[in-house]
Design brief:
alpha+beta, two-stranded antiparallel ribbon, about 30% strand, globular
Length: about 90
């Protein structure tokens, strides 16, 4: 199950999330979302846990808990919605 983790402090690293979630089961991967230009964290990321029962336990235990001084938001990730075709700017025909 893919889990959304939000309201992260900018200093949170992949290893911090792996450590927090691995207390509840196997963590397959962690993906912190970073700004393309600056490389700084955008304050959210995703954790993938293969077993749904372990993921549910982690969500219930960690949602609202403190991580590096901030209460984190943890829930099941929603599938990405297709926003349709992206239009360009000033196209001339």
């Amino acid at each position: 199950m893919q889990i959304y983790v939000g309201n992260l402090a900018y200093g949170v690293a992949d290893t911090d999330l792996t450590e927090a979630f691995s207390k509840f089961g196997n963590v397959a991967s962690v993906n912190l979302i970073k700004d393309r230009t600056t490389g700084q964290s955008k304050g959210f990321g995703f954790v993938d846990m293969p077993k749904n029962s372990e993921a549910d336990t982690a969500i219930k235990a960690l949602n609202g808990s403190m991580l590096q001084g901030r209460p984190i938001k943890v829930n099941q990730s929603e599938p990405k919605k297709d926003s349709g075709p992206r239009g360009g700017g000033n196209r001339r025909y």
